[in-house]
Write a structure and sequence with these properties.
Layout: H1 3-20, E1 36-42, H2 47-58, E2 71-76, H3 87-96, E3 113-114, H4 117-123, E4 127-135, H5 139-145, H6 154-164, E5 168-172, H7 193-199, E6 203-205, H8 208-213, E7 219-222, H9 236-247, E8 254-260, H10 263-268, H11 272-296, E9 299-305, E10 308-309, E11 312-316, E12 325-328, E13 333-334, E14 338-343, E15 352-355, H12 358-367, E16 375-377
Parallel strand pairs: 1-8, 1-9, 2-15, 4-5, 4-8, 5-7, 6-7
Antiparallel strand pairs: 2-14, 3-16, 9-14, 10-13, 11-12
The protein binds zinc ion.
Zinc ion binds at residues 44, 87, 264, 268, 309, 333.
């Protein structure tokens, strides 16, 4: 064998090993101090969505980054009145520790404002952030920093974000921040929320290049008028990296929520190729989080879903991922419990079978946040109340 060919074979062998055997992470038992929380949410990412992505991208023997984590658990996700949750009720449970009705953003069915884990972390001097590939006014991100009785109040949610004082807000939805007279605006008034954010101390970016080059403590990034495209620029991984860079400047620690927002969309549409593509993008963001946590040693990484979408089943196919047969039971969400993965100090607290409401309560306990969960106050002034 010629030397060059020989070297090529070694290279191919090493490359293959790297792709097919990601390192399984072990439990961190020696260090119990958690400074940072990375909460990853795959919207609509049920077990079949994860399994199909794993099988399709690296064969049945392969493994995703999220699957390298040492702790797994199961989460029921029913809302206050329905076995089938929507993203609003699910994210309310994940953010506040309370179940509410479908469609409500971090308020109780009778109108009490529910304190979110992001707000509690902020009030305890942690830095906080939200990173998504949908409009930042959509249900999952909104539930961490905003409070409205109807999830479609996008313009009001945009206004509330400015008061949230979250250090990092990255995603789409610029149309809800621009004044009515600005092309493409979805606002019904002349408020320019981007200018207001700048006055309040935020740096604003709207391209990948601006994102990568910015140095700041408060960052608002709105990269599209509505949701990000299927191949987003910046990627979820790039946004996650920037968020961690900014938030980790705080010695006290941080709370960051990252959502792979579009797995759900393509599961509703029964488009398995796009479900897999979106789950891969989500898993690449998870890798960024895991790389940070492995080095940092005081970071707890939790990955979960708000609900399963589509009642997806894998009914056949080859071990190498070819000819996978997929069937769907529903065009909506299902009541199937979702899987949770955890890595880092205190990860073992998330093992077993729980409800979504367990997640923020346990995060609060781990971060030493007292008086959580609780209603923030009985009533909040809301623009939507006038309607
Ligand atoms: Zn959905």
């Amino acid at each position: 064998m010629k030397r060059k060919t020989y070297l090529l074979f070694i290279f191919l062998f090493l490359f293959t090993v790297d792709v097919f055997t990601q390192e399984k992470l072990s439990l961190i038992t020696e260090n119990k101090k958690v400074k940072n929380i990375l909460l990853f949410i795959g919207d609509g990412m049920g077990l079949s969505q994860i399994a199909a992505t794993h099988i399709k991208t690296s064969g049945a023997e392969g493994i995703l980054h999220m699957e390298c984590m040492p702790i797994t658990g199961l989460l029921y996700n029913y809302s206050a009145t329905s076995l089938i949750t929507d993203s609003a009720a699910a994210a309310t449970a994940l953010a506040t520790g309370y179940r509410t009705d479908n469609g409500i953003i971090s308020m109780s069915p009778d109108g009490k404002v529910l304190y979110t884990i992001l707000e509690a972390a902020r009030d305890n001097n942690f830095s906080t952030g939200i990173v998504v590939t949908c409009s930042i006014t959509n249900a999952t991100p909104a539930c961490f920093a905003c409070h409205v009785m109807k999830r479609n109040k996008d313009t009001e949610i945009a206004e509330q974000y400015l008061k949230s004082k979250a250090n990092v807000l990255l995603g789409g939805g610029r149309q809800y921040f621009l004044p009515k007279s600005s092309p493409g605006s979805k606002r019904d008034d002349e408020r320019d929320l981007i200018s207001e954010a700048k006055k309040a101390g935020y740096s604003f970016v709207k391209t990948k290049e601006e994102l990568i080059n910015i140095k700041t403590n408060y960052l608002l990034g709105l990269f599209e008028m509505d949701l990000l495209p299927i191949n987003p620029e910046p990627t979820l991984a790039q946004m996650t990296q920037k968020a961690i860079d900014i938030l980790s400047q705080n010695e006290k620690g941080f709370f960051l929520m990252v959502e792979g927002s579009q797995i759900d969309i393509w599961a509703h549409a029964h488009n398995i190729d796009n479900v897999i593509q979106q789950t891969v993008l989500f898993d690449e963001a998870v890798k960024v989080g895991l790389d940070f946590a492995i080095k940092n040693k005081q970071t707890l990484v939790i990955i979960l879903a708000d609900h399963e979408t589509g009642g997806m089943g894998i009914l056949g196919g080859n071990l190498n991922g070819e000819n996978m047969q997929i069937e769907w039971l529903s065009s909506s969400h299902t009541a199937i419990p979702v899987v949770l993965f955890a890595f880092g100090p205190m990860a073992e607290k998330f093992t077993g079978v729980n409800h979504h409401t367990y997640i923020p309560k346990t995060i609060a306990e781990i971060l030493g946040i007292k008086n959580f969960p609780r209603p923030l106050r009985e009533k909040i002034w809301m623009r939507s109340e006038k309607e």
